[in-house]
Amino acid sequence: MEKAKVYFTKDISNEGLIKIYEALNTELQGKVAVKISTGEPGGHNFLNPNLIKGLVKKLNGTIVECCTAYRGKRFDAKNHWKAIKDHGFMDIAPCDIMDEDGEMEIHFEGGKHLNGKNYVGTHLKNYDSMLMLSHFKGHAMGGFGGALKNMSIGVASRNGKAWIHSVGITKDPDEMWNHVGDQDGFLESMAEADKSIVTFFGQENMAYINVANNISIDCDCDSNPADPEMQDIGIFASLDPVAIDQCCYDQIINSMDIGKKSLVNRMNEKHAIHTVEEAERLGIGTRSYEIINIDE
After folding, report:
1. CATH architecture of 4-293
2. Which of 12, 129, 183, 245 could form a disulfide with 28 if both were Cys (CB 3.0 to 4.6 A apart)?
């Protein structure tokens, strides 16, 4: 397989985000879903609405989310809508909690754990294409969160999140905590869920952007995340979800920033790269990439 292209800019701005999307030379068709994390109330590292509003408007996109599997302030739709409003996303674009009206089962081939099934919000069927607009940072369970986590856990319904976290044992969000001991199985299950989304839309109807700023070791799902210890890096974009996450992971590992230590330790502790490895094995992308710096 030839190397995937990963575009990069240091310009973390409205203009930089639009420019790097345009570098992909793709056009997302029809009704476009823009999948972000709207951020757990109390947290403050999630993507700023003012940063993303230009690109979302350019795409005539709808910001989409799903409810959480943990009992925080986005566990049910009513409170989740409040978080979306309070965090400013309703001011910049239409928003949609995709599992507000229930869930549906989608399928994929291959995998070891989920029996070829993933569970997503019923509203997913209302979209023709999707931009995975991810904040790249650490994560307490996955090691890091980028395109692959946003596409798997992020797009899954509340019950679907439980299905992935429990490695295909239960769809009950409360019961899932009794089945979270298989770390590699969890990472592999995320990759399987990724394949289901790529299968659903078709790779030609998806694009991926990772914004590496406010790089905490904690996810935006954390209501009290650790402060970032690394400097901002920039924005990455690709049509390959495996390549973009591999590239961002490599940027952290190879960084000269002394603040990387905590995040590197977390990624190593959680075997974070295994999601990328499994996603490649499942055929949704390649870990082999070339970086194209659009600032040069």
Report:
1. 3-Layer(aba) Sandwich (3.40)
2. 129
